Amino acid sequence: MSPAEKVVAGVDLGGTAINYTFLDERGQFLLDGLCEHPARSVEGPAVCLEQIADGLTAAAAKAGVP
Fold it and tell me: Burial of 21 by CB count in 10 Å (0-12 exposed, 13-18 middle, 19+ buried)?
């Protein structure tokens, strides 16, 4: 994947899990399946935001997104 290619990040904020994925410009998934992490929303919004950032970083690395 070149740095000039556009990608879309998908984040599904569920009550028990947060799922992450990436799609390329053609709408093709860059991950096989979802990158899932347990949700910790009961710990407050700061924890949720940190989880989103950390999960996107992990999913990007797995998908080869710079």
Answer: buried
Tokens matching residue 37: 């992490």
Residue 28 burial class via C-beta count within 10 angstroms: exposed 0-12, middle 13-18, buried 19 and up? exposed
User: The whole model's pTM is what?
Assistant: 0.84
* Residue 48: DSSP 8-state: H
Distance of CA 39 to the CA centre of its chain: 13
Question: Do the Cβ atoms of 14 and 39 come closer than 8 Å?
Answer: yes
Beta strands in 1-66 (DSSP E): 7-13, 17-24, 35-38
pLDDT digits (tens, 9 = 90+) for 1-16: 666 789 999 999 998 9
